[in-house]
Amino acid sequence: MNNKCFQMNEIYHERQSKELCALHALNNIFQDKSAFTQRELDSLCYKLSPDAWLNPHKSVIGLGNYDVNVVTAALLDKQCDIIWFDRRKDPNTIRLDKIIGFILNIPNEYKVGWLHLPFRRKHWIALKLINGAYYNLDSKLKKPLRIGSELEFLKFLRMELENQDKQLLLVVTKTVAETEEWKIDISF
After folding, report:
1. Known catalytic residue: 123?
2. Domain 17-179 belongs in CATH node 3.40.50.10680
3. Could you read off the pLDDT of 17-60 as tens digits, one per residue?
4. Long-range CB contacts (< 8 A, 24+ apart) of 139-142?
5. What residues does each domain of the chain span?
6. Residue 83 near residue 169, CB atoms below 8 Å
7. Catalytic-residue membership of 24
8. Catalytic residue among 13, 21, 24, 45, which?
9. How far is CA 157 from the centre of its chain?
10. Exactly one of 13, 24, 57, 123 is catalytic; which is it?
11. How does pLDDT run across 144-154, given as a tens digit for each residue?
């Protein structure tokens, strides 16, 4: 893989290549450049739609642009799962200590030079607790962006989820997903 990466005090950060932001987000969550490869994600696409002439789970021209089904299947292969977080709820309802990492799916402009094209694309961003602080590991950033403490991270999530086009996925172990240990019940 020819990804440029950045290592800062043992923080692994893959930089954007082609349309492989889902791959980069997964590797950044696991802090391992070999956690997943493009070949593995492409293989999952074909397993998900073996009879499709044009695979609906990735870019037609083979540059990536994987959908949530591929991300989910990749995580299941690692004995993990994703939980879609209802953006109408407060992030305070998440037991942060049960989360491996977070993936934020955001709208992405598609442009050539100054010309904005009318394609709707999404971009995958990894968020993770590393060395006692939360980081934004967006592959479009030159280096990881420190968000800060748990309180600062929850504030960051609240701000991000104000945009109706953004989705938050919690990366957890299969056990945490099955037992719903990631939830904090704040009903009175």
Report:
1. yes
2. no
3. 888 899 999 999 999 999 999 999 988 988 988 777 777 777 66
4. 139/13, 139/14, 139/15, 139/16, 139/17, 139/20, 139/21, 139/24, 139/25, 139/28, 140/15, 140/16, 140/21, 141/13, 142/6, 142/15
5. 17-179
6. yes
7. no
8. 21
9. 14
10. 123
11. 999 999 999 99
